[in-house]
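Example (one chain per record):
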Amino acid sequence: MTYGFQSFNDNLFVQIDSDAPRLCVLAKGSYSGTTDAVVAFPRVITSADPPMVFIRPDQTGSIQVPISVWFMGGSGGWTGFAMKASNVNSTLSGLYFVSAWASMGTAIYGMRLWDAAGALVYDSGAPAVVVSFAAGNWTYFGDEVLPVGRRYIWGISKALGAGEYVSLNPFTMNCHNNATGGGCAIGVDYAAGRIMMYSLATTAWTDQGHRPFLCAKLVA
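Predicted structure:
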């Protein structure tokens, strides 16, 4: 940049840049529901693209498997998200935060930065998301029979650390398979230290390619 403002951390990574917005935390809360979990954001998210939603499922006796994730609202006015449990009558519960590649004014006092076009790129009340892990090397684990069909399973060896959340966005799209398409689900296996991906379909490709997976924290 030729002029403006930049802030670097101790490792010389750019934390704030008046020319480049960061992935900013815009809202957070909890979710719960049986079969379906519906979350209304405490404020409308005004980003053009769907915001990024990260969840941290509660540690219960079984792996929670949210599937059929979708966003409510539309471009410039996202109002919430919803997800359905892979197994009917299963419980979905945990914490979430929502973020976007744009800031929104939230702080009563502090600092704000605008870019040359007048768009808000930083607000001290909407801190930057700390990405803690990224991968795409899914390993195929096999399948299991359900009352309504067959579920195919992949995993990444990653124990979800304290304060870490997983991104839902890559799992709003169907899993690849060589039949008619299948719903895609995500699960956290706390006991085995794994992140799980599931596809409900009549068949499946054992190589899922490199569907991205992200973990992030609210604080470093």
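Caption: Residues 6-131 form one domain.
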